[in-house]
């Protein structure tokens, strides 16, 4: 169980205390002299002042693949890692050094690869001058290991998180969840991949090894010196692909598995390769029941989608591009394959769990109160209060939640909804059946202005205690669009 006294004390010390809840964006301290730490201009629809940006030659940097972290120790059932959280400089824009926050000195943190059934322990040391914590997004973990937004690692302190990896093979990610600071911290680089793999998935003969490539997509605004600007989301016009602005990736004429993650604070990617078939194989919670051929995949903040792309037909025809809508964000340079491609995509992947009969229905309403400065994010009319349990859920229960976005003109915000602890299935939308991006097991789902989404989940968990559910535009959760559920016996 969460040590409440511990986290309330920490909160009072480092974040100003419960008396000033909800924490608001203007508590975000500037990290660099050029950083704009305040939020007041964020929420308006026309605030494009200070649209300063950097110019650079696109497609001149090679897209890196984040290094896989090596365990510092391995026991019979656990892989043990250590990872400092520290400042660094990274070359995000060609030729410029950008001050960033990192896991282990890398702007896209090292990838942690876990094997289903083996435990992972990661000991983080906070070398920053500010509190931080770590949330494993999509992880089925106990409350004390979930990175509750008030359960923080103080500067100079060390904290070990334990992850059981008892869930399906899937593409997860780890990121900061410090209440009020999560948007700033993620924006400056506290994000990395966490992959759970298993034997069943390996038997499918999907592209693997060098041909299984995690790709983190996000955007940012830079000043002319390459420093990150934390300003209006609409000014984040530079797309970073694995931490490089508009890079290129040499590929062989064969199949690749791309694990795409949207870690942008606020963006919906509409990804396509100019009509090239994209075989969608997985979403947030792992493999789909069957592959789906699409020419575009849509991925909102926090979501993951996995695709298999066959470059074999495209050798010798010049480069291909990965586009966000019509904007090229990654160039593929296709060279002949050396050796036969023995990978494939089977017709059947992993069935979804059967939907149990739901015994509880709830409505979760997300909205923003724009009458206040700064605005306040609300769930069911209330901003986040760490001392309040918003709902109690019976361990083992199956529930249907109707997720409603109540935001209307002139502030028609969209909100991606995210629950901690487990994945859900999307039953449908107010507009009709589910969208292609709703398929499979999800932990994050996009809800457009005035839209609603019905989801179902079974709280099949050994853990009791408090978990968050919130908007996954971190600037909205920082402003209070977050609530907590308590799992009870
Ligand atoms: Cu939101």
Automatic annotation (TrEMBL):
Protein name: Multicopper oxidase family protein
Record SUPFAM superfamilies: Cupredoxins
Similarity comment: family membership: Belongs to the multicopper oxidase family.
CDD domains: CuRO_3_CueO_FtsP
Keyword Metal-binding: yes
Residues annotated as domain Plastocyanin-like: 91-200, 225-312, 370-486
Organism field: Nonomuraea purpurea
Alphabetical keyword list: Copper, Metal-binding, Oxidoreductase
InterPro entries according to UniProt: BlueCu_1_BS, Cu-oxidase-like_N, Cu-oxidase_2nd, Cu-oxidase_C, Cu-oxidase_fam, Cu_oxidase_Cu_BS, Cupredoxin
